[in-house]
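Bit of a strange request maybe. I'm writing a small parser for structure token strings and I need a real example to test against, not something I typed by hand. Could someone generate the tokens for this chain?
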Amino acid sequence: MSDDALQGYRQSIDNIDAALVFLLAERFKVTQAVGRHKAEHGLPPADPGREERQIARLRALAKDADLDPEFSEKFLRFIIDEVIRHHERLRE
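Reply from user aminoacidic:
Good idea to test on real output. This should exercise your parser:
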């Protein structure tokens, strides 16, 4: 593999990483709004039924995309746990 080819691959990875960061930022902006709504209306910070449906949906999407469903579940669980932590802080 030439250095030019490697550099091209790395540039693509860097672009994808940047897109992921911006997508996560947008997702957390929306989940923060959800957290404020829940806090204002006395709703619990976690919704286990929704979480399980989301995990099942993302596992199916991962499988369709040839991505390891176990990895996608761990990734989503990490995000969900962080969102719940934010929602709990908003209730304080």
